[in-house]
Amino acid sequence: MSIEQEVKKRRTFGIISHPDAGKTTLTEKLLLFGGAIRSAGTVKGKKTGKFATSDWMKVEQERGISVTSSVMQFDFDGFKINILDTPGHEDFSEDTYRTLMAVDSAVMVIDAAKGIEPQTLKLFKVCRMRGIPIFTFINKLDRVGKEPFELLEEIEETLDIETYPMTWPIGMGPSFFGIINRKDKTINPFKEDELLQLNDDYSLESPHPIEADSAFQNALEEFMLVEEAGDEFDADKIATGDLTPVFFGSALSTFGIEEFLDTYVDFAPSPMPRNTTEESKVAPTDEAFRGFIFKIQANMDPRHRDRIAFLRVVSGKFERGMDTTLARTSKKHKITRATMFMADDKETVNEAYAGDIIGLYDTGNFQIGDTLYGQNGKVTFEALPQFTPELFMKVSAKNVMKQKHFYKGIEQLVQEGAIQYYKTVHTNQPILGAVGQLQFEVFEHRMKHEYNTDIIMEPIGKKIARWVENQDDIKDAMSTSRSNLVLDRYDNKVFLFENEFATRWFSEKYPEIKLYNLL
Ligand code: GDP
Q: For residue 268, with 0-12 CB atoms within 10 Å meaning exposed, 13-18 middle and 19 or more buried, which class applies?
């Protein structure tokens, strides 16, 4: 098959939601549907002591939250679909944001009883910023939740996006009869664990006993209203993320999934071109292999001490054993071991194309944001966004004899993007920066278990971090306890301000210093 044909059949999406909306369940059901896994029930839950195939790390098992993103591929209707799972917990939003930089579309899972929750809103905004198509799956229709119109209105008003229901629910909870498929005007009757045996497909034109039911009548009226007064279907608006196709279903009951997938593959884009630092774009069909690393995860297999760098293929064809160059160092790396993740299995990858995510075994060469390219592919992709941390801790090794392990651990965890690293200017005191408190806890846990180093962390609290455009104009006297000057991992100068007041005071006193913050 040609590169064009391979690219055309690929779809890569990130799945976002507030914790507990059903993201993990939906992911598993999609994989099940695509035949990537054989049986359901391998998914967690947190409550029964089983864990999802995507929850690798021990820390997250203990906490019952998804700390890291994971990647899986499955086949559907001739398409190869890559799902990138993201941690729902807001303390790990940096990881989530970076993952969203590696997808071409997003699927937003909403709990029908809860509507739009804070984390959904945050993640949605990142997708919106990227201008990628967003598909909505309203989940848990087998339970009593909000009315469909109320949910659509909430989506439109809170997220400022138009909605286009592709399916419409008939009832909910105990009276959930099924969904109307808007495209072909058929009804898919709800079956939960085969308990409710309604085997025939009904058509809206051929009346059926359940028609008498008030839920059905009601749904039919609502459906007519949607047809007459709802937003128009507009593929261009879907493409720009201004209109979201909406699906109703129950991930737990594997219901409404096929309707979702059918539409998804039709309207989600195949892999998109990507910007380089030269402001040109690389097309996915370009012959030369190129990709970038958006995530590094250590020790996924407790028996081996390996790190895996997740690379999103941007163009060309990846082949096992190929020679690549790391743009940052211009060093050659022969890729002899690469894996693709198939739910509960890892598979060796022999070839991959734009949109695919491959896991490269890494012995400490790669960093988040790195570009790799093959023959004739020399480029550097635009950097991934960096985030302004708000929480800071002084950190040191409990045992001074363990300095080497301590710095090795910090270096690797920082390269992975697990935490940010700063140091004071004259004394080189290491300071950790994080977006969420749990990052520190994961850091401490991993330093102990992976680098055998007990650490002491001393909170210095919430700070306002500001980078400086004209670094050469900084004088020592500008650094005080209320405007503490530190260096980031690239040795850029950064002020950690005590509070808003200290920031303003500084800007008034030193108007020549141009401050800015990251994302
Ligand atoms: P995540 O935190 O978004 O990954 O959510 P999970 O997939 O872990 O689901 C959270 C809880 O909701 C679990 O107990 C699931 O079994 C349950 N759940 C998920 N989907 C459904 C559904 O369609 N109906 C019902 N009733 N429960 C669901």
A: buried
pTM for this one?
A: 0.84
Give the tokens for residue 27: 């992911």
Report the pLDDT value the prediction gives residue 209, as an integer from 0 to 100. 52
Cis peptide before 88 (omega within 30 of 0): no
Delineate the domains of the chain, giving CATH numbers in brackets: 3-39+59-265 (3.40.50.300), 275-373 (3.40.50.300), 391-516 (3.30.70.3280)
Query: Does the Cβ of 251 fall within 6 Å of ligand 1?
Result: yes
What single-letter amino acid sits at 26? L
Q: Which regions in the chain score pLDDT beneath 50?
A: 39-56, 62-67, 69, 193-207, 211-212
DSSP state of 386: P
pLDDT for position 207? 45
Alpha-carbon span 486 to 479, nearest angstrom: 9
Q: Which two tokens stand for residue 343?
A: 């739910």
Which run of H or E residues covers position 5?
helix 3-8
Q: Distance between CA 489 and CA 329 in Å, rounded?
A: 17
Residue 129 is predicted with a pLDDT of: 87
**What is the CA(20)–ligand 1 centre distance, in A?**
6
Question: How far, in Å, from the CA of 498 to the mean position of ligand 1?
Answer: 41
ipTM score of the complex? 0.99
Strands 178-181 and 186-189 turn out to be: antiparallel
Residue nearest to atom 14 of ligand 1 (CA): 45
Six-digit token string for 468: 């400086």
Q: Specify the amino acid at residue 512.
A: E
Q: What is the pLDDT of residue 44?
A: 38
Taking CA atoms, 96 is separated from 28, 120, 408, 417, in Å, by 19, 12, 25, 11
Is the C-beta atom of 53 inside 6 A of ligand 1? no
Query: For ligand 1, atom 17, which residue shows the shortest CA distance?
Result: 22
Is residue 88 marked as binding?
A: yes
Tell the burial category of 12 from Cβ atoms under 10 Å away from its Cβ (0-12, 13-18, 19+): buried
* Predicted local distance difference test score (pLDDT) of residue 37: 58
